[in-house]
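Z., the sequence and structure:
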Amino acid sequence: MKAAIEAWAKPAKLFIGGKWREAVSGKTFETINPATEEVIAQVAEGDRDDIDLAVTAARHAFETGDYPKMAARDRGRLLAKIAELILANKDELAALETLDNGKPIRESQAIDIPFAAAVFFYYAGWADKIHGETIPVAGPFLNYTRREPVGVVGQIIPWNFPLLMAAWKIAPAIACGNTCILKPAEQTPLTALRLAQLCQEAGLPDGVLNVVPGFGPTAGAALVAHPEVDKIAFTGEYITGQEIMRNAAGNLKRLSLELGGKSPNIVFADAEFDPAVHGAFTGIFFNQGQVCCAGSRLFLEDSIHDAFVDKLVSKARAIKQGDPLDPSTEMGPQVSQEQLDKILRYIAIGKNEGAKLITGGQRLPRPGYFVAPTIFADADNKMQIACDEIFGPVLTVIRFKDFEEVAALANASPFGLAAAVWTRDIKKAHTLAHRLKAGTVWINCYNTFDAASPFGGYKMSGFGRELGHHALELYTQVKSIWVNLAG
């Protein structure tokens, strides 16, 4: 871990066309350790000129040289090699992720880094299995289809799972033969830059992956509006997603948007009590609540409400917060001062709305952006804390009486990313899972993922599916070819 910290206590550059370079403007920005509020490194600040260079490099790599001629199986071998290098450098990557993001090292080591490698391994297997089809058309014709890469892809990722979100986007894009410009979040650029090094070490041709740290209004906006970018893949808040849709209209870019959520976590009285409490606990407090599919609306059936809340409060008060590099730490700081301020603002809103604050609700009296795990009870589904995505460790608990009431309440949200149902009644579980307007529904579990299973949202939570074979649809386009067989 010490080596990782020392290695990045220096200027971090842009990665464009296989070269490390300063920003054209010469500007840099600070990346901050959220646990100490100290500067980790100065990072080159990309903007429109740097994006233009990156697009040129990506277009050149897509159209010329060895990459467009590379056999699909060889692309798969490259992706597998990248996965192997991620695992070979797992301790350094975990330390960098924790240093830059603030998440506990136990989570970086057990979840983020292994899952990122798993995604690269998964799409390594897909690279030579992206098939076309033959179609029995009328007449003396042979008609067949090809799935071809979209082209130059701009990928904009958030700060909550920096390396993992990069893997979700880069691996399927390269499996399909595209080239990429990745804009990591300005709060957490370090593992994306380290990943670029590993991709180069694996033998990825120059220009196939370009990494340009910078800010949304400059680097991000330039990437979205660039006429030579064929597709944008974005993960982030819905307001930015709306802006991307407007700004991508210039050349009708293809879009995939994985946006926010206000996911309902529904517990019926017949659920297994302790597993459901644990699911509610991890559903909101994992990664400091900075999860797009966090179970931030907890619906409890009347008869178990009080006992359930008591048990949940006890667990919340016992959670160990502190230095995220300490393996015993269970909850780290929020990612930034801006995010801390937003969470505290929503806690004040919840109090003013009349929700009952039963634990937490304050910043910890120590350096770093730490917020105590916070639970509001006696809340109404129409309160702002039940409607808006807070993106922090703030849980809103809502009572319900029966199946029909909770189905309506759960769906009464502009978001539809995820949901969960806890019950021993399998008929009730599946019936409600079918009724819920969400891209992922967990039954008797929460935050369960796999590289093979698709993830994405309904409604204001976006469109398109990442992971699984469905992600291949985001990065390919279908060409129909006709051959006249008549004499």
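The first helix runs from residue 2 to 7. The chain has a mean pLDDT of 96.

Let me know what you think.
H.
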